[in-house]
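User: Hey, quick favor. My workstation is busy. Could you predict this chain's structure for me?
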Amino acid sequence: MLFCVNRKQKLYMRKIFIGGGILTNLYYWLHPNIPEDKIPYWYKRSITGELWHLIRKGICQNVAPNCVLTPVRLGLYRLCGFKIGKGTFIGMKCYLDDLCVDKIVIGNNVTISYGVYFACHGRKQGHNMIVIKDGAYIGMRTSITARHDIEIGEGAVIGAMALVNKSIPAGKTAVGVPCRVVNSLNLDCPNRGELNENNTLMSK
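Assistant: No problem, here it is.
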């Protein structure tokens, strides 16, 4: 079924109903100048899908990060759809991107410290993957931002408060903002050396 829309004194034929749910058509009716292919994706969810999205967001951003019991906290993240391996620890106050539950994959025996942020999407970019391989360690307050797909390799170590915006090879240590790969640091040795301005290890 079609109806006429007066746009700058010209008549255009416009469908009354389009494919999609109630929210899609509601946006379509309220914004007659917006073509179908420009309707925001969140209006293309069903009503039940939108309700689950709101519930999931509440669990991801309010309930799970503040849960003091680690097994319950991990269970809540898994309930939301995140892929989390066995033996993995995720600290409190973490942010996992609830719009991209299928884009975050965390392997086995991974340690994610307090307050780590995972962002799979952002302004003028798509929804990209963040993959954490087995045995990796992510220091507290690290931010992982995926302007493109990112993989933190098996056994890699990310220093506290780092900004990870690229993939880190397996077994490597990365620190800084933005993070850079550095040589392994022997934390038990008092003369382990210092990092120079290029974030490479130098002897004392």
